[in-house]
Amino acid sequence: MNQRYNIIESFYTPIASGTGGSSTVTIINNTATIEDPFRNKTLSVDRIYANFCINSKNISSIRKFSYNSIISSLNTFTLIDNYTLISFLYNSSNQSNADIKIIKNNINIVFLNTLVSEKTKFDDTLNIDFVSNDYISVILDVNSGHVDYPILSLEFAKKY
Question: What is the CATH number of the domain that holds 110?
């Protein structure tokens, strides 16, 4: 579908994530967007967040995160448009070695497989594209030790 962009105004601003630098913010269809030179694409300035948790302690094996709830049956997040995953923040009440795996559409495609060996980890260098109606699930795979009450927040920017 061809979409016509109505550019209203633009201004110059610094970029907060990635490699730094600056870019022009442009209004497209009443949404502030930015040319992200780190990811080489146009992204919205507004962000959406998907928060996952496991409401349990002494986790020492593979467990699926619950989405935005302590109810374990709610374990996927569905995107309503084209988005790019740009960052994640992980936190646990204790330190252990674990992999975080982000899976798209229940297919064994792992987009992020990162070892966390500290209580808190933040990464703002992600550049993973999703399209409308993709759904995401997250798995925690504990390699050694145990994890108590882990949470994971994923940050998305709409892709233009």
Answer: 2.60.120.40
pLDDT at position 58, please? 87
What is d(CA 111, CA 114) in angstroms, rounded to the nearest whole number? 10
Domain that holds residue 58: 47-159
Q: Do you know the residue count of the chain? A: 160
Give the count of domains, the chain: 1
Evaluate whether residue 10 is within a structural domain. no
Q: What percent of the chain has pLDDT above 90?
A: 20
Structure-model confidence comparison of residues 87 and 11, the more confident one: 87
User: DSSP string spanning the chain?
Assistant: ------EEEEEEEE--STT--EEEEEEETTEEEEEETTTTEEEEEEEEEEEEE---S-B-SEEEPEESSS-TT---EE-SS-EEEEEEEEE-SS--EEEEEEEETTSS-EEEEEEE-SSEEEE----EEE-TT-EEEEEEEEEES-B-S-EEEEEEEEE-
Structure confidence at residue 81 (pLDDT): 93
Is residue 11, in this structure, part of any structural domain at all? no
Q: Return d(Cα 134, Cα 130) in angstroms, integer.
A: 6
